[in-house]
């Protein structure tokens, strides 16, 4: 533990116990080393301390280094803004402190409406908890309370109740320090102080959901979850968000088999304790009324409910050889990819099994040198051809954190300015389609003057950015123009082409991809050259291809099998269809953009007769070639060397 | 307080304005002054207060959303932050348009003993406005304020950067007449003076009023 010895420590005394803690640590953190907890409201370990609520009062004093006598200060101090120093003496419990805390809470509650029975936060509210443990049992306040706006729709996701707000500024500091959009601020002063957006405009942050979780009262609540359950009615389970490739760890709160809300679960290596709004509010598809519940088979023009046996028979009849293809979505479990590959190539003999809809994805680099957490330590970062806050929200937060905490120099090159330009040292907005040229300019393969002219950037700007980007860690996605990707990959610094599909990384690892890509399969199908096509877990109409092309492909293939969790548009073209479970309804593992494989357990029961896709492949596979099938997801993963 | 936020039952809030949607109104002079002021501070955040004074002058004494947005834009700060700063200080007019002249009647202790309320009621009746309101012609606004630190002259009235006191009905009549006759808005004039005071001599573009 070489690193540990580098840390300078100081000796302090907490409640009569001597201990050494790192110099400069805040008292509120230092006492946790003894398992003590100081009540807090405004302090948040990931935000800068502001000392606004005064809940964290402690008694402080100094030990005289000469004679060892202790002299206490006459007044208490806020533990959240006080760094430890040599000889500091802290008392966290005393009669005086009890009174102080009571006093602070009494003041906080003067203007608080105490409407806990109708408050969503009731039952998991720090204000309730602190009041219970440290507050007065009754109120002496008989005057009229301050009245203010209630149930104010701040955005599509967040409701603001100003009467409940205790002015801790956590939400404001979050938008300033973490998400960086600075859309919230305190307006007015004194008892009129309230957090709100500029001119009450919409709170458009892409990370707005986090303020709900860090608000220590019920002032900010979740519009989607509002009045749908009380916290004690919910069951909660560990899960992983599969709405994008970052793989945030989440708490999956469910009630009677239905998901009701998503909260962030701390994982320091990935999402710390944040989520993006896509993840936090985007799990409606579990309760979609279009969920597919039974197998379907086509008779004439109509899709009719069928049983698995009928559909299996038809599938095995239609699929064999290289004249058939399988297209997989990029958010399926690793087990699905592994078994699909084994079954489709091993048993049915077709190599056309793929997930890639863009030529860039197929040809470009898929190297990933950096873990998400390590991005925060990069000296210089070149964000190329991606809108990070949309494509890789958690990577965005890390890059921003690096800039905010230790001054990472960020260079952005994209086709429009976005959230990253707010803090980037250089922003290059190039004409769409000129990625390769500008990448070559970074590599010195074309002259700066030529590139600047072609990409519509001023020459000095481009030159400055190129100079600054020497040795930079490159961040891009797998859908970047493949020429540009090759060039950037060859540069000096680390190169990261993060996949954006939720389990695209798993698909990369598990699938051989030695046949036709998904895009090529569709082209072939459109020409009537494919006898059967199997589409698993993806709606072909939502992958960004022109509609007519997709329709032509679906109409010209003789046999179309669709395996999905809901009745997508593709479903209506199917010859047979199979219902599929969603991640929280099955065991499975998923590999996020940095390559971490995370397990998910079945949390809620499957809908109707839906089965995990891997189970379907296994059941079919033993019909072709009898053997002992895999019965558990974990066995499948263990069987695949790519995931060892 | 609810008047501070227009509560709408609709769920769709207007979007915050984009940079190219802003209606920028700073004059040449104001832009130059702001450039000068920026050099006084280590960062642009520190320049918000002087920037707001320039805006208060440029926008005729009232810092509405456009004015706030312009300052934020020119200083690369967020709209919300600048609005937060502006609303914190009572000398920035962020809630009501103050009209041409803001009559600030001190109602704190010493003035109170010396019939500040009588003066307030007199002005109120004469102009037909209550505390925090502006006359229909946009000429006067009446505001009760806390101690103006001129208790020796109680009751005190402040208009722009000038103090009047002790005042009585007669002197109030005369004061209102004088203000009505004057061309210039005392609200704008005070904003201008505060801007000028902060500028270095070589940075001054306009003439001191
Ligand atoms: S809304 Fe919540 S988080 Fe924001 S200042 Fe008020 S109490 Fe704090
Ligand atoms: S937690 Fe220390 S003042 Fe709020
Ligand atoms: S009380 Fe009016 S000036 Fe002091």
Topology:
The complex is a heterodimer of chains A (644) and B (209).
Chain A: H1 2-6, E1 9-14, E2 17-22, H2 27-30, E3 57-63, E4 70-72, E5 77-78, E6 88-91, H3 95-110, H4 126-134, E7 152-153, E8 158-160, H5 170-178, E9 184-187, E10 194-197, H6 209-214, E11 220-222, E12 235-240, E13 249-255, E14 258-264, H7 277-281, E15 296-299, E16 302-305, H8 308-318, E17 324-328, H9 334-347, E18 353-354, H10 359-363, E19 380-384, H11 388-391, H12 393-406, E20 409-414, E21 426-429, H13 435-443, H14 448-455, H15 459-468, E22 473-477, H16 482-489, E23 495-498, H17 504-510, H18 518-526, E24 532-536, H19 547-556, E25 559-564, E26 576-579, E27 588-591, E28 597-600, H20 613-624, H21 633-639
Helix pairs in contact in A: 9-20, 9-21, 13-14, 13-16, 18-19
Chain B: H1 28-38, H2 48-58, H3 65-74, H4 79-88, E1 101-106, H5 109-113, H6 116-127, E2 140-145, E3 157-159, E4 162-164, H7 169-181, H8 186-198
Parallel strand pairs in B: 1-2
Antiparallel strand pairs in B: 1-3, 3-4
Helix pairs in contact in B: 1-2, 2-3, 2-8, 3-4
The complex binds iron/sulfur cluster (SF4) and FE2/S2 (inorganic) cluster (FES) (2 copies).
What would you say this structure looks like, in words?
The complex is a heterodimer of chains A (644) and B (209). By secondary structure, chain A is an alpha/beta fold. In chain A, strands 16-15-26-25-24-17-18 form a seven-stranded mixed sheet, with helices on both faces. In chain A, strands 1, 2, 3, 4, 5 and 6 form a six-stranded mixed sheet that branches. In chain A, strand 15 (296-299) and strand 16 (302-305) form a beta hairpin. Chain A has five domains: 2-93, Ubiquitin-like (UB roll); 104-222, 2-Layer Sandwich (Alpha-Beta Plaits); 234-287, N-terminal domain of TfIIb (Single Sheet); 296-362 and 505-643, Rossmann fold; 367-498, Dimethylsulfoxide Reductase, domain 2. In chain A, helix 9 (334-347) packs parallel to helix 20 (613-624), helix 9 (334-347) crosses helix 21 (633-639) and helix 13 (435-443) packs antiparallel against helix 14. Chain A has 21 helices and 28 strands. By secondary structure, chain B is an alpha+beta fold. Chain B is built from eight helices and four strands. A four-stranded mixed sheet of chain B has the order 2-1-3-4, with helices on one face. Chain B is elongated and about 50 Å long. Residues 1-11 of chain B have low confidence and may be disordered. At the A-B interface, strand 7, strand 9 and strand 10 of A face helix 3 and helix 4 of B.
């Amino acid at each position: 533990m070489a690193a540990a010895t580098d840390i300078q420590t100081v000796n302090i005394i907490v409640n009569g116990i001597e201990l050494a803690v790192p110099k400069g640590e805040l008292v509120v953190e230092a006492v946790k080393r003894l398992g003590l907890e100081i009540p807090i409201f405004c302090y948040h370990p990931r935000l800068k301390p502001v000392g606004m609520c005064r809940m964290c009062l402690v008694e402080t004093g100094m030990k005289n280094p000469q004679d060892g006598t202790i002299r206490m200060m006459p007044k208490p101090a806020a533990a959240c803004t006080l760094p430890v120093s040599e000889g500091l003496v802290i008392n966290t419990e005393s009669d005086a402190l009890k009174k102080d805390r009571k006093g602070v809470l009494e003041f906080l509650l003067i203007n608080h409406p105490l409407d806990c029975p109708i408050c969503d936060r009731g039952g998991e509210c720090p204000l309730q908890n602190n009041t219970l443990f440290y507050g007065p049992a009754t109120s002496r306040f008989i005057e009229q309370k301050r009245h203010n706006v209630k149930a104010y729709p701040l955005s599509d996701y967040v409701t603001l109740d100003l009467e409940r707000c205790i002015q801790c500024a956590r939400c404001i500091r979050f938008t300033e320090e973490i998400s960086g959009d600075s859309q919230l601020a305190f307006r007015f002063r004194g008892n009129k102080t309230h957090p709100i957006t500029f001119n009450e405009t919409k709170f458009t942050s892409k990370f707005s959901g986090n303020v709900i979780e860090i608000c220590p009262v019920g002032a900010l609540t979740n519009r989607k979850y509002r009045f749908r359950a009380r916290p004690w009615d919910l069951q909660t389970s560990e899960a992983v968000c599969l709405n994008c490739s970052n793989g945030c760890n989440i708490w999956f709160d469910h009630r009677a088999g239905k998901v009701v809300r998503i909260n962030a679960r701390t994982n320091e290596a990935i999402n710390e304790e944040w989520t993006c709004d896509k993840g936090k509010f985007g799990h409606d598809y579990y309760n979609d009324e279009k969920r597919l519940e039974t197998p379907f088979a086509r008779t004439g023009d109509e899709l009719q409910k069928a049983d698995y046996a009928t559909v299996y028979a038809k599938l095995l009849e239609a699929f064999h050889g290289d004249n058939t293809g399988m297209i997989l979505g990029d958010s399926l479990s690793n087990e699905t990819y592994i078994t699909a590959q084994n079954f489709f190539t091993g048993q049915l003999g077709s190599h056309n099994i793929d997930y890639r809809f863009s030529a860039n994805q197929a040809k470009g680099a898929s190297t990933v040198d950096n873990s998400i957490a390590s991005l925060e330590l990069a000296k210089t970062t070149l964000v190329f051809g991606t809108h990070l806050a949309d494509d890789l929200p958690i990577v965005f937060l890390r890059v921003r954190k690096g800039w905010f905490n230790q001054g990472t120099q960020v260079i952005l090159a994209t086709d429009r300015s976005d959230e990253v330009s707010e803090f980037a040292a250089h922003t290059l907005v190039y004409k769409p389609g000129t990625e390769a040229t500008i990448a070559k300019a970074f590599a010195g393969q074309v002259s700066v003057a030529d590139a600047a002219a072609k990409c519509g950037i001023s020459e000095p700007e481009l030159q400055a950015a190129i100079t600054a980007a020497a040795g930079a860690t490159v961040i891009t996605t797998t859908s970047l123009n493949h020429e540009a990707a090759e060039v950037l990959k060859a540069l000096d610094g680390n190169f990261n082409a993060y996949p954006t599909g939720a389990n695209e990384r798993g698909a990369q690892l598990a699938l051989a991809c030695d046949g036709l890509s998904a895009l090529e399969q569709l082209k072939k199908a459109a020409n009537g050259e494919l006898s059967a096509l199997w589409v698993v877990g993806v709606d072909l109409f939502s992958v960004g291809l022109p509609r007519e092309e997709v329709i032509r492909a679906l109409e010209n293939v003789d046999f179309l099998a669709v395996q999905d969790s809901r009745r997508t548009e593709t479903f209506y073209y199917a010859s047979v269809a199979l219902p599929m479970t969603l991640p929280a309804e099955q065991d499975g593992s998923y590999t996020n953009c940095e390559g971490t494989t995370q397990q998910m357990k079945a949390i809620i029961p499957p809908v109707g007769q839906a089965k995990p896709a891997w189970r379907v492949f296994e059941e079919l596979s033993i019909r072709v070639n009898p053997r002992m099938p895999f019965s558990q997801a974990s066995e499948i993963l263990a069987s695949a060397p790519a995931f060892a | 307080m609810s008047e501070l936020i227009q509560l709408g039952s609709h769920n769709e809030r207007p979007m915050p304005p984009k940079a190219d949607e802003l209606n920028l109104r700073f004059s040449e002079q104001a832009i130059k002054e702001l450039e000068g002021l920026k050099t006084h501070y280590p960062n642009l955040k520190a320049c918000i207060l002087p920037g707001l004074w320039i805006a208060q002058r440029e926008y005729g004494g009232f810092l509405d959303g456009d004015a706030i947005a312009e300052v934020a834009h020119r200083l690369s700060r967020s709209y919300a932050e600048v609005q937060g700063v502006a609303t914190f200080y009572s000398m920035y007019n962020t809630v009501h348009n103050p009209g041409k002249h803001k009559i600030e009647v001190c109602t704190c202790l010493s003035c109170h003993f010396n019939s500040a309320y009588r003066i307030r009621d007199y002005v109120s009746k004469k102009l037909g406005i209550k505390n925090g309101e502006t006359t229909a012609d946009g000429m006067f606004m009446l505001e009760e304020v806390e101690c103006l630190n001129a208790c020796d002259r109680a009751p005190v009235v402040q208009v722009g950067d000038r103090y009047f006191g002790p005042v009585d009905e007669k002197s109030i009549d005369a004061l209102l007449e004088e203000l009505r006759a004057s061309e210039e808005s005392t609200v704008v004039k005070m904003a201008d003076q505060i801007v000028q005071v902060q500028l270095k001599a070589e940075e001054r573009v306009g003439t001191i009023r």
